[in-house]
Amino acid sequence: MTSVILQQPTEAKAARKTNRGFIHGLITNKKAMTGMAIMLVFIVLALAAPVLFPDDPSRITGMASLEPDSEHWLGTTAKGQDVLALTIHGARSSLLVGLTVGFASTFIGILVGLASAYFGKFIDEALSLLTNVFLLLPGLPLLVILAAFLPPGLGTVILVLTVTGWAGSARVLRAQALSIRSKDFVAAAVVSGERAGRIMFREILPNMASIVMGTLLACVIYGIGAQAGLEFLGLGDVSTVSWGNNLFWAGNEGALLTGSWWVFIPSGLCIALVAFALALINYAVDEVTNPRLRKIRKPATTERGAAQ
Amino acid sequence: MSHAVHSPARPDVSSLTPALEVRGLGKSFHIGGLFSSQAVRALHRVDLTIGRGEIVALVGESGSGKSTLARCVARLEKPSEGAILVDGVEVLKRDRFQASREFRSQLQMVFQDPFGSLNPAHRIEHFLRRSLTIHGKGGTRQRGSEEQTRRRLEELMTTVGLQADMLDSYPHELSGGQRQRVAIARALAVEPNVILADEPTSMLDVSVRIGVLNLMRKLRDEQGISMLYITHDLASARYLADRTAVMFAGEIVEEGESLDLLANPAHPYTQLLVSAVPDPARAGSYDPIHRAQLRQAVMASASCAFENDPKQRCSSEEPVRHQVGDPLNRHWVRCHLYRPRAGAGGHALATEPEPGD
Amino acid sequence: MRFILRRLGFYLIAFWASITLNFLLPRFMPGDPVSRMFARSQDRMQPEQLEALRKLLGVDNRPIWEQYAGYLQNILTGQMGVSITRFPTPVTEVISSQIGWTLLLGGTALVIAAVVGNLLGILAAWRRGSALDSALPPVLVFIGSFPYFWLAMGALYLFGVVLGWFPIRHAFTDGLEPAFTAEFIGDVAAHLVLPALTIVLVSIGGWMLGMRNTMIATNSEDYITMAEAKGLRPGRIMLRYAARNAMLPSVTSFGMGLGFVVGGALLTEVVFAYPGVGYQLLNAVQGLDYPLMQGLFLTITAAVLLANFLVDILYVRLDPRVRSN
Amino acid sequence: ATGNKSGGTDAAANASAFLTIPREDMGTFVQNFNPFAPTVNPMVQQSIYESLLVFNPAKGNSVPWLATDWKAADDGKSITFTLRDGVKWSDGQPFVADDVAYTFELQKKLKGGYEYLDGVTAQGNKVTFNFNKPWSPALYDVGQLSILPKHIWSALADPEKDANAKPVGTGPYTEVDNFQAQSFVLKKNPNYWQPDKQKIAGIKMLAFAGNDGANLAAANGDVDWAPQYIPNIEKTFVSKDKDHRHYWFPPTGAMINWQLNTTKAPFNDVDVRKALSMAVDRDQVTKIGMSGYAQPADCTGLSGNYETWKNTQVKDNCTWTKHDVQQANDLLDKAGYPKGPDGKRTLKDGKPFEFKISVGATSSDWLSVANVISQNLAEVGVTAKVDSPDWAAVVAGYEKGDFDSGIVWSANDPSPYKYFNTTMGSSSVKPVGTKASDNYHRFGDPKADALLSDFAAATDQSRQKDIANKLQEEYNDVAPVVPLFSGPEWGAYNDTRFTGWPTQDNPYATLSVRAPTTVLVLTSLEPRK
Amino acid sequence: MTVSQTSFGSHEPVLDVKNLTVKYIGDSRSTTAVNDVSFSIGAGEVFGLAGESGCGKSTIANSIMRLLKDPAKIAAGSISFGGKDVLAMNQDELRRFRWQDVAMVFQSAMNSLNPVLTIGEQMADIFTTHAGYPRKEALRRAAQLLELVRMDPARLKSYPHQLSGGMRQRAVIAMTVALKPSLLILDEPTTALDVVVQQEIMAQIKDLQRELGFSVLFITHDMSLMVELSHRMAVMYGGRIVETAKAHDIYTAPGHPYTQALMGAFPPLTGPRIPLKGLPDGVKFRNIPDLAGIAPGHFVAPFDADAEAAVLEGAAQ
Ligand SMILES: Nc1ncnc2c1ncn2[C@@H]1O[C@H](COP(=O)(O)OP(=O)(O)OP(=O)(O)O)[C@@H](O)[C@H]1O
Ligand SMILES: Nc1ncnc2c1ncn2[C@@H]1O[C@H](COP(=O)(O)OP(=O)(O)OP(=O)(O)O)[C@@H](O)[C@H]1O
Ligand SMILES: [Mg+2]
Ligand SMILES: [Mg+2]
Ligand code: NI
Prior knowledge:
binds nickel (II) ion, translocase (chain E), ATP binding (chain E)
């Protein structure tokens, strides 16, 4: 009994952090701050793109393959498009797709995970089977098929990535929801006469905040990366400006063969930076909610228990 | 200065419908998934009656099915067979698929773990207010009665001995005892007839346990609420409950007036249980030989204490009840010859379970 | 055993669901393989011949449920038909001619990433706060954040073209006869370095961090403290007590990964011109080559299920707890 | 795959070296040399099997190959080929007239087509093709089909399903060697009929899953012949070894048209088609979209493949294929598509002048073309949105006829008959909703119909030319499609190891590796000494 | 200050803890879990440590084994075992010290067995590490140990989850006596167990102790159990010891209000029902002073009797 008591307060604390301590923990976490700073820069640039570069970034001009100079800070592509404009405008679609995919697949994951865990029995079996089948389906061909089947456009890319992406998050969220489902407070809510929907969303969900956050971040990373991959293969919507498409065109125009590194580097680096930033935040969330993962200080004195 | 606890004059129980009656309740758990038909029998033909304003204790070893009984009655699990009567109404027939709000307002449950039964994400006020709102109590159904609701909330807090300003706290800011009081207040908010309390103090620090027990007694005395008090601590059962039932491997093996039952345990298992309670007052420590005998008696009783009593019938096939002592004590014990079917609970006694496959 | 049987039941259902999806998906795609071929050939084919070609290729015009029945029957009898884009080569032959390279590349990369990643994770967790623990994860995460093809192309140009350290294409030098000779194996290994290395680079961070985090959680388990209290040697505690338990989630991921190896590494194959089924699958999809697509899907699904099943069995060996429930 | 960068100085090494050619759209090879396969392995029709004659579009001449001579009957209803003596199959069997007759029988049986062909008769070393109507375009149709050995194929139960792993042909390099998924080698045919022209040791094909890999191999000097699209070829390929690396992109490919669905308004209006055509800056299209490798179209609609057929009169007085924003605007204004205050035009029914240009997503070059067109059209107040789903979806739209407009290839025969027939012949028009396999824009013109049937009946080359001139005039008048540019026949080579490549100065063939002319190159190359 | 205490068994204390202070250093604030605690245990003595949950009992046990992990830090005090300074031991000495000299049953003994290794392997580990036995011999020894706690030696092949809670507990107890240590630390060895099993386990420990003669540091908050078992005991509150005496003395005459509350929290099994009062919610003792003797061998931290009583009354209403 006592052992349980010992653990309980930390758990209660962790849950409380969903309200205040969690945010505070993130703010004081170096990783989280670095990640959020990078993200903020990208979001601001994406929002400001139409102001910074009011012209259509894919507008074809005569000045092909210029090296970076004072007029074109990142040079131009073989078609004479300004690379900086393409990169900054690209952030819009890449972030949009990433965030939408992230939110959509996390949302489906929450629905499936909660329903699975709350109702149990047949519904759980059925939903788990569905989840597992989607996990088993080879993702890329599904992406390719759906991308071919649906009319091109950001909507399709988002739909495709959501369809292939939700299952992973559903599995994670179900496991967590299941462990919360077995907690007494859920039974207590049932006994007090709460209805299913309310229990799922008001009682169980708030206690999954950190894992939902983690899943969301992972899904966003997946969304951005998968979109870039699809587009690089020419399976995305080629007519939008996005980082993946920038790289597709760069490859198409032989940017590496001609040594036009300035066409190839920026979009790739942006994807990496965004993914890195999100990963940092994700790890920070892990650390904040799981104090064991927190960075440990160097031992200060010799008298320390059981040093290895 | 010490005085015997005064039991309030109770109305003649037999003349009124009991607050809660359980008849022949059985529950098997199917274990394994879609492709398995294995079952564990957790409850078998359990009969239990709780009168109005009565506290009945349910004691028994770990895994004997006490919680399962409570959860079935609270309709958190679906019983495999039997009937549950609340206020004389068969609830399993009335609400076939789901417990109705009406049922919920008649019967409430307090859980073992005060740390787990309060959602850490909400303030104390939330729990009480929800209970009021769902059941339309405390003026929540009237318009503009926020004042009234507020008063009811404060009143509830006072009833369980908490300060009203704690309504704004989060559960983690409260001590275990305080939390358990909140859990009780939450049940009270519904104004139920029956409260099921599943080991409500086992997770609490020894020093605060007694306070919660006292609170439960006070509620019974003042509000006439019936209670099922589940524990495996015989001493506290004796302290709190009017009657005590002993559960063994999913069946009730002995039942009677608490003081009488503990003073004259009839079933070998009850005897074993009583002998195992640490008691500093006990002269001399425990005697292994005596224990071994007791255990033997529980595991394979070959004879029944009432075998030679012509007034009592013995059977090894069906559970027969033997009357023990004064009929006023309503103390009975199941025939020792009868053996619960294998596959039921009974972890602790079976110290050498079959090796897992 | 009951556990295994139950899993088997699940696998059968999952398998059926997957193959049914595999059947339906290609049929939802617009157009038919012949029009597609025609579009690709850009009028090098005579339009009058399209009908004959449709017949020749066996483009099925039966009602969908009849096709489905035939499909199920074919799967049960192991007939996968003839590839359309590679007509008249049977699907089995198309797949078998390339699956070896796919398995070699994917398997090598997966094993290296998982083994090295997990070892690093174990060490990092065991030496919390050491240089390894604090410096390596961010670096690996950063590398892992790059889009794979970008990293691969970068590596190809830098190490293959500019520095010339590694071959820049194919699984072995063109013209060599495959044989079990040191020369050939060495040649294959040299060709494997860049493709495998890039896959390892982007995936190793995940393995390491996953292992590190579970290991840290495991380290605070009571049985680790108990092992310490027993005065066991640190190395033994680390490997036999902590790592052995922390490994379990990794085993599951490994199983999943192993199954998906069969799907091929499309981007790697494209960048390094490495033979394999990944590009074949893309081609099949784009050429609406249902038989090949279905064959590949079937192979992948079967492999994933098989790998998972093996992992389940292994899991039973590794974690005695799952045996009883 | 270590490169042979340093190779080329050693004559002996060159003599034993294989001519290395990349194949950029096959990630892997399977051992399938069946010429009936829709996607055959490379070189099957170029170096293993040969045809009766080879048409060289670079010069516009026909080279006698397995036939030494041919003659059309006066009524135009038959052609007789005289076969070359002394030709042997690679297994040593003699090549006979029966082989030719059998090939056509098999071809008709398996693949259909040749509706005009009544029968093939073999007599001695003569083969006669009989038609059911006068049909002059047949010459190249039958003349360029790969001939198969009867003694091998007639023994097969299911000829179309045979992998033909050990092909027997009359070509110069027929012996498959060291077959791997990633590469294979074709070695000399021991029984070739021109042994003096088999100067190279063999051909090695490399598989690549995309242009990038093939381009890298070319840039790295690992291949001798690079037939794929290479971006910025001067810089990425030639500049690395100016003395040895060359390219030649003759405009002998098919005409690439912008097809406007003439069943829909406003594309049924010839003025609109011409105005839109004038709005397109073809220089920009070819320079940016096609990396400057293609040649802008003129108003004859004929690509560089038909240089000798072109009506100079028409060609020199083109109006609607010249970039002229002013005139395009005027024409649209006049035709009744006024510009609104926002600079955008409206249709006659008041809707905005908006439509889609469909291009398959994988054709990145055409996508760029469509983007340039869309940009150009914006200048005349027309909104064109580039729509790039998968090719299957695009083609499905073309076939059914519910598309707006698209960038489409066209027929590329030695004779212009097919091109004109599929752009404006009524016989090729299918109603909307019925599957069309050409003439997607669904345009038929009675005047053209009459000219076309005359052309088919004309056996005499100069008569054909006259009719072709008239067809071009008609084309110039009705503008059935908007011709954009002649598809280039890419080709680049590296002559460190082999010499004798076709060039602009010596256009005995094009640099294509998939055309009938490829065999001409294979029999002309020789190792550098 | 040091309180000189008479040990029960011999005069030579096996374990001597002096002025031990342990802190948990948190991100923002640190808690002192153990504050200036001193006690000693004689050879063959059973010393009980009682107190509410979270008062620092386990922390003391872990300090003795030097098992404290980050963020715990021993801020002051000394621990000497058989004359050796435990806090000064290096890694090798420590490894030998652990289990050979002091063995411990953890609070969560149920979880202190590695779930994926058999009981046999985990027991044999002790012998192969400390005694250098080959595996076979080690397993034979392990079988003997199981017999000692009356378990079937065939159980060596079982995994922990295949055993009931009581059996797991017994297996752990068997492990602790493997190397015949001179001190056994039992940290709430029977919580989460059924009373019946609890009783059996405790009896077993007593048997073993009688047989092997080790000293015991027995930690629990179940006063009845403690009084039944130990010779001498200490009651802790908030990191401090508030009372220490012979077990029977504390049972009959608890000195500190907290001890009184603890004693009052157990309803008796016999006699009439008497209303009991535990420690009311919200009562906290702060700034507990050092112990002072009230009788021979009976030390109590001084407290303001009137004020405490008032607080108790007030909180109880
Ligand atoms: N969900 C379930 N699935 C399968 N078996 C179960 C389930 N819940 C309980 N059981 C089994 O039913 C029996 C009774 O369990 P129950 O929890 O009612 O015991 P208990 O008397 O409350 O024990 P404790 O005192 O430990 O709380 C046990 O054998 C248990 O293993
Ligand atoms: N890792 C930790 N970090 C911070 N504080 C801790 C940690 N472990 C324990 N504490 C604190 O130290 C104090 C003493 O803990 P300890 O585990 O020694 O108590 P205990 O007396 O054994 O309690 P119980 O009876 O519940 O086992 C508690 O207040 C606890 O909150
Ligand atoms: Mg219970
Ligand atoms: Mg403790
Ligand atoms: Ni009887």
